Amino acid sequence: MKVRVRDGSDGPALVFAHYWGGSAGTWDEVVRRLPPGQKTVQFDQRGWGASRELPGPYHLDRLADDLARVAEECVTGPFVLVGHSMGGKVGQLVAARRPAGLAGVFLVAPAPPRPPEAVTQEYRQALSHAYDSPESVGQALDRVLTAGPLPGPAREAVVRDSLAAADEARTEWPLRGIARDITEEALRIEVPVAVLAGARDKVEPPAVVRACLLPYVPHATLTTVPGGHLLPLEAPEAVAGGLGDFLKGLRG
C-alpha cells in the first residue's frame, strides 16, 4: 500500500483517508497549509491510485482494517483520523474499535452512519456509473461534487484519480458501502469528533449530517463552511483551519 509520511513532532499525528474517487493527493493542499511540525500520513486506499492492484474485497471493513494498520505502522503515539466522505465512514468504523493512541476524529463532508432516505437502489445504480469515463467524471464534478469550478490542475487530478481504480473498488462503495448502516458502531466512538460540512454540498448536505450522523455520535460538533462536497480541494484553507482548531482543543 502506497503511504506518504511527513515527519513532525507537534501534537497528534494526522492520518488521512480519502473519498470514493480520491487518492492520497486529495489532501495535498490541506497538508501544505498545516504547520511544518505537524506529522501527517496520507495513503491510497485499497483499489485506488497506487493501491489499485491490491486484491479485494474492497468493502468497508477491509478498508477499516487497512486504515487501522496504516495508523499502527506509521504512528507512534497519539493520532487523529481525518476522513473525507467514504473515508469518513471508514474512519468511524476504526474509531468504534477504540484503537490505542486514537485521540480524536475529524470528519470532512462525511458519509453518515445511517444512510439517508435518498440513497435508494436506483440512486446507487446510477452512482456506480459516475466514474465510467472522463466525461462522466466531469459531469459529476460540475453537477454534484463541487459548488464551483476547480482550478485546472485540481480538476485534472480528480478526473485522473476517479478513473484510476480497480473495477470492483469503483462499484463497491455506491452499490453497497454507501447503503450500509453503521449506527451501532458509531455509538461506540468515545473520542472527540469534529465534523466539517460544506454549505452547498449536494452529496452530504448539513441537514443530512445533522439528521443521520449527529444523533449517533452525540458528542460530535458540526461546523458549516462555504463549499461543496470536495472540501479538501474546494476549501483547503477551511479544512486546515478546522483541523488546527480541533488539535488546539485536544491539547486543552
Automatic annotation (TrEMBL):
GO terms for molecular function: hydrolase activity. InterPro entries: AB_hydrolase_1, AB_hydrolase_fold, AB_hydrolase_sf. Pfam families: Abhydrolase_6. It comes from the Bacteria. Transmembrane segments: none annotated. The keyword Hydrolase applies. Residues 14-240 form the AB hydrolase-1 domain. Keywords: Hydrolase. This is Alpha/beta hydrolase.
